[in-house]
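Dear support,

I submitted the protein below through the web form. The confirmation email said the job was done, but the results page showed an empty box. After a refresh the structure appeared. I'm attaching both so you can tell me whether what I see now is the final result or a partial one.
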Amino acid sequence: MASATQNTFAPPVMEARRWLQGVEFSPEQPLINVSQAAPVDPPPEAMRRAMADITLNEPQAHLYGPVMGLPALREEVANQWSAAYGAKIDPASVAITSGCNQAFAATISAIASAGDEVLLPTPWYFNHKMWLDMANVTAVPLATSDALLPDPETARALITERTRAISLVTPNNPAGVEYPAELVLAFFKLAQEHGIKLIVDETYRDFHSQDGAPHALFQQDGWQNTLVHLYSFSKAFRLTGHRVGAIITAPDLLSEAEKFLDTVTICPNQIGQYGALWGLQNLRDWLGGERLEILSRRAAIESNMHLLTNSGWTLKGCGAYFAYMQHPFEMASDALAQVLVQEAGILALPGTMFMPENHPEAARHLRIAFANVDANGITELFTRLAALRFSLAPSSAAK
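What the results page shows now:
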């Protein structure tokens, strides 16, 4: 009998890094790493100084804290989310977690048992699939349209007595697509109708192209009974190494999640929580500038696509940190991604890492994570891709 971890695949980002072993990159063609959606720069200096002060002068920061997070941080999240979404969110509806991945794991542990089901739109975020595998919860693939948007009526047909949730990521990882507010609301109503949860992972919310609230879910009557909102401070404030995320949902569900959180980490990282609190209170303008930079990189992706379209490439989705691209080559994306390291000095993740095994669409796509590549780097990336001379796939396979 397989163990829990043997039920799933190896971590994709770690697998991709192994492709770099033994490869030397020339000064003329240095590595362009578009494999991971995590900022590599540290937090802004002012935040680091504030965190250093906490480290030196706040003894409590070195002890166990509350399992569901610092009360001041929970209150700040409740207040700022209430203002941002035009709703009333109570601090008791907020839990702080050790990153957004743990927020998802805690949520699944609180709502599902072995043999239950959760609907995941494809392409899916691989860590969500991995956790469901390890929890022996079936990830039910929810196909998306050519625009990579899931359809509520397609989802309705997949709901069974074992379904416990529908899980959405918007802006999407891996596709970058921003789900329209009316679509997210339709999924909320579908979940509410069936008495299941709607998990909405908004890790990349701060880089949405739309000004204002991206949806009206927190304004719905009884939202706590259906919605589980997930968030990450890692992307907003470059706190990736400090592991700080959040869940917003009904307090009674958080009480169940607390059992998981207490067992796994006891409490979130204290220094990271103080940093997140300081960031929320002091870095609004700075974060606005980060958003504009990411939006400019998105524009650079779109403006450079003309270099590839004549060769048969298609931009399927673009937003937040990601571009999801259909390639024109005969080889499958998992092979292509490894060849790109050798031939073009590009490290990207193949569509096979985001789709069910042997899914035909998986072979045709690559994910480009551009959080750490500026506009000049994006132009160089597209120039290298345009120079590739591999055998093209039959026209029917490229559609």
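Response: this is the final, complete result; the empty box was a page-load delay. The longest strand covers residues 163-169.
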